[in-house]
Amino acid sequence: MTLKTSHAPDADPSEHRARLLQAMASVAASQGFAATSIAAIVAEAGVSKRTFYEHFADKDACFLELYRAASASALRTLSDAVQSDRPWQDQVEHALGAYLAHLAGGAQLLRMLFVEIHHLGPAGAQVRREVMQHLADFMLRTINAQRTVLTSTMAVAAVGGIQELVLLAIERGEAAQLGELTASASAVVRLLAGAPAAPATNAQKKGPPKRAD
What we know:
single chain; 10 helices; Arc Repressor Mutant, subunit A; Tetracycline Repressor, domain 2; mainly alpha
């Protein structure tokens, strides 16, 4: 996520907030959330601690706002990639490809956000559910534009499956290659919508490479 910031002394409150979020992203991605201090955040943002507390109750609140902002940015990329003149299966695959590429573009920040959100207790769980519901709502709007194909329950299940695929890739150190999950993520959605599977590519038909003897 990139936030445009300015260190002008007369920056308005919304600019201060944006600078603090960008500072949280920079410091936490490089040091880890646990090691990130409010002193480091305000130093990076070029504002005072007083300004920080005018916007956020504590470090956790700043992180949760960053998580929402980064997720909203990724969702905009997902929505903008929809090609409404194509079948929903193609729309979803194209949009998911753009979404995963967007996430891969900020691999270091992505790892911090996806992993740390699970350590912020009930508040983190609530924000994570909010974000997942936004993604599920997008799927429902896109897939059910012409007729109802996907139920709300299956939309949530699809989002959960895709999020777990992303988290697994992060844990394996493969966040920069998230685009390679597009076919698998699309297959999850098709399966839960009860749609036919996409035709297998030549590589898929051949299966995994055989181990040399």
